């Protein structure tokens, strides 16, 4: 029985390693960029919007009864957001401070040159401004807006947890074993940064699993991943990464997703 369990474990590990191939590096790139941006106030603005929306949508400013808010607070702490900033964002969500400012979630669908699909998620208090800035960056790069539904069907929502192996207290192999046991559905390792995928319903429980065994997570959120990816040339990759970076720099943009294999 012990041998059978070990064989099953090895087969499981090999299956996960096979799934790891071909994962996009864009999520890792954004994560590393966010660590640098955390030294500036701009990243705090985006995190504050997420906190406010989590309170509004969860109809509670109490993280104990609002798991989305609890996760947003943990993500805010991961980028060293001051407690006062977190508290102000929560108050805005319940209408206690700047309660008249309505932050909305809006998605824009677009194409980069070469027909590369882009899904652009915004958190904004001014949809006209957000749309104008997104359009300006797309036009400058030779891209274009797409009609509603023409891009979104290429993506699906999943939970994503990021763990820095150097801060986990475990080797990469040990961390892989823990991830497999956590209930996650997939993972990839980009230079020691583990991107862990879960079903949306399992995101909180998997994140809690890591915390209960003493592994800190860098972030946990719901993201969009492409159903399949397309290969692009080196020249296309360079121009696409520049466009993605420029869009991500916009204050109203929260996330940018692509189906390009980069």
Global shape: globular
* First-last Cα distance: 43 Å
The Cα radius of gyration reads: 19 Å
Mean pLDDT: 83
Specify the CATH homologous superfamily of the domain at 104-152 and 229-258: YebC, transcriptional regulation domain
**In this structure, how is the largest beta sheet organized?**
4 strands, antiparallel
Please report the first level of CATH classification, the CATH class of the domain at 104-152 and 229-258.
Alpha Beta
Give start-end ranges of low-pLDDT stretches. Answer: 1-23
- Which strand-content bin applies to the residues? 15-25%
As for the CATH topology of the domain at 104-152 and 229-258, it is: Alpha-Beta Plaits
| CATH architecture group name of the domain at 104-152 and 229-258 | 2-Layer Sandwich
Number of strands: 8
The run of helices and strands is HHHHHEEHEEHEEHEHE
Which structural class do the helices and strands define? alpha+beta
Range of helix content: 40-55%
Number of continuous helical runs: 9
Strand order of the largest sheet: 3-1-2-8
Written overview of the protein:
- Helix content is 47%, strand content 21%.
- It is α+β, with helices and mostly antiparallel strands and 262 residues long.
- Among the domains are: 38-93, Arc Repressor Mutant, subunit A, CATH 1.10.10.200; 104-152 and 229-258, YebC, transcriptional regulation domain (Alpha-Beta Plaits, 2-Layer Sandwich), CATH 3.30.70.980.
- The strands form 2 sheets. The protein has a 4-stranded antiparallel beta sheet. Strands 5-6-4-7 form a 4-stranded antiparallel beta sheet.
- Strand 1 and strand 2 form a beta hairpin.
């Amino acid at each position: 029985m012990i041998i059978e369990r070990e064989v099953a474990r090895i087969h499981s590990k090999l299956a996960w390693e096979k799934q790891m191939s071909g994962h996009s590096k864009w999520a890792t790139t954004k994560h590393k960029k966010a660590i640098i941006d955390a030294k500036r106030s701009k990243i705090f603005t985006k995190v504050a919007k997420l906190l406010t929306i989590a309170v509004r949508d969860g109809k509670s400013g109490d993280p104990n009864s609002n798991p989305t808010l609890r996760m947003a607070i943990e993500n805010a702490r991961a980028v060293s957001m001051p407690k006062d900033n977190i508290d102000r964002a929560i108050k805005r969500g319940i209408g206690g401070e700047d309660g008249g400012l309505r932050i909305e979630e809006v998605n824009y669908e677009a194409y980069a040159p070469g027909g590369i699909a882009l899904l652009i998620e915004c958190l904004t208090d001014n949809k006209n401004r957000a749309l104008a800035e997104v359009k300006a960056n797309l036009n400058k790069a030779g891209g274009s807006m797409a009609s509603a539904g023409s891009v979104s069907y290429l993506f699906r929502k999943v939970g994503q947890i990021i763990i820095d192996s150097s801060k986990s207290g475990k080797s990469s192999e040990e961390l892989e074993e823990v991830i497999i046991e956590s209930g996650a559905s997939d993972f990839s390792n980009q230079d020691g940064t583990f991107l862990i995928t879960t079903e949306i319903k399992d995101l909180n429980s998997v994140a809690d699993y890591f915390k209960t065994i003493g592994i800190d997570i860098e972030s946990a959120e719901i993201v969009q991943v492409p159903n399949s990816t397309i290969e692009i040339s080196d020249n296309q990759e360079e121009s696409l990464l520049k466009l993605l970076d420029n869009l991500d720099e916009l204050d109203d943009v929260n996330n940018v997703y692509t189906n390009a294999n980069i």
